[in-house]
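Protein modeling request. Please complete all fields; requests missing the sequence field cannot be processed.
Requester role: graduate student
Desired output: 3D structure, token encoding
Chains: 1
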Amino acid sequence: MKVINRRARYDYEILESFETGIVLTGPEVKSLRGGRMTLDGSFVKIIGSEVYLVNAQIFPYPYARPENYDPKRTRKLLMHKKEIISLKIKLASTDLTLVPLECYNSKAYFKVKIALAKGKKKYQKKEKLKRKDIQRDVERELRSKKDPGRI
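Delivered output (151 residues):
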């Protein structure tokens, strides 16, 4: 099971990534095993000396009791203290952001890959799309020259 935040790679330039653990409840684990999670609009926040995943939605497990369940609750991420301190320093010195890239299971544990990222401007996004289109056209031309009978 792997949940990917595709929007993060489009909106941000990824500088450095980290693997973190996540604190979950029992029904959340069951729901995650089924891939019922979205990272759209979520972000990572450092409060004190702890790291939290904010606004990530884990849909309720259908067979659990749904009373008082908040799908978008703030969840604690598990990192080494040295990593948290270095992240705090980097975030304070420049205009960087922490974004979740993906959530996956590693053996019996769920991990969240977070990244230190810098926001892209609108013109940078358009430029990247243009380069991608040009590259696609070039590859299409090369394929058609290799196999002239193919359209």
